[in-house]
Amino acid sequence: MLEIIVAAFLAFGIFFMFVGAVGLLRFPDFYTRLHATGKCDTLGEALIIAGLLLYHIFHYPQTPLVCVKLLFLIVFIFITNPTATYALMRSAYKTGVKPWKLGDERQ
Amino acid sequence: MDVLLKVFLIVGLVIVFTILLCTYRAVVGPGIFNRVVAVNVIGTKTIVLLVLIGYYFERPMFFDIALLYAMLNFIATLVFAKYVQRGDVCSR
């Protein structure tokens, strides 16, 4: 039962990361690529690490410090990844990168 | 448990494949911003890869490396954004 739950977490996480990578490849413009990767990577990574955290709780209960490390990693990524995305988007907007409009050619 | 270790190996290989997909954008992508976004995404995927390696080879040291890599990735992106916007990192 535990194996099925952990594998489901890993499968959803890998799905979101793959979708983020495809969005980074296929979208036409810088801002849309940032839109794809900024959310998909955060959620996918959090799901994969949550599955590993569940695995660790049931298989290595003698080392609870690693659970704290993984939990801190999830919280840290949920704070820092959107912040980095916001900083990059603001920097690109202030230096004059134009958003893509319908009918423009793909970059 | 043995089955889950094989699942971890497969997930790690898929993550390596997505890193290769992002490498295309990091090499080809027009302009400097696309490249930096691709490098940031590769760093984010590498954190997950490090945690998976730590479980697959049973080395708990890799979790500390993953934490350190997360902080380095964040600081590098912020410093790049500030540098491109202002032309200087330390000015107020």
Largest interface: A-B, 47 and 45 residues
**Radius of gyration of chain B from the CA trace?**
16 Å
Major β-sheet annotation of chain B? none
Helical coverage of chain B, percent range:
over 70%
Mean pLDDT of chain A: 89
Class from helix and strand fractions of chain A: mainly alpha
Query: In total, how many beta strands of chain A?
Result: 0
Q: How many discrete domains of chain B?
A: 1
Shape descriptor of chain A: elongated
Question: How far apart lie the N and C ends of chain A?
Answer: 47 Å
- The number of distinct β-strands of chain B equals 0
Q: Strand-residue fraction of chain B? A: under 5%
Global structural class of chain B: mainly alpha
Uncertain regions spanning at least 5 consecutive residues of chain A: none
Task: Measure the end-to-end span of chain B.
Answer: 54 Å
Spell the H/E element sequence of chain A.
HHH
Please tell me what the overall shape of chain B is.
flat
Strand content of chain A: under 5%
Percentage of residues assigned to helices of chain A: over 70%
Q: For the report, how would you describe the main beta sheet of chain A?
A: none
Overview features:
heterodimer; A: 107 residues; 79% helix; 0% strand; elongated; B: 92 residues; mainly alpha; 3 helices; flat
How is this fold's topology laid out?
The complex is a heterodimer of chains A (107) and B (92).
Chain A: H1 2-26, H2 30-59, H3 65-94
Chain B: H1 2-28, H2 31-56, H3 61-86
Helix pairs in contact in B: 1-2, 2-3
Task: Give an overview of the whole structure.
The complex is a heterodimer of chains A (107) and B (92). The model of chain A has no long low-confidence stretch (mean pLDDT 89). With 107 residues, chain A is an all-alpha fold. Chain A has one domain. Chain A is built from three helices and no strands. Chain A is elongated. Helix content of chain A is 79%, strand content 0%. Chain A starts with a helix and ends in a 13-residue tail after the last helix. Chain B has one domain. In chain B, helix 1 runs antiparallel to helix 2 and helix 2 packs antiparallel against helix 3. The mean pLDDT of chain B is 89. The interface between A and B is large, with 47 and 45 residues.
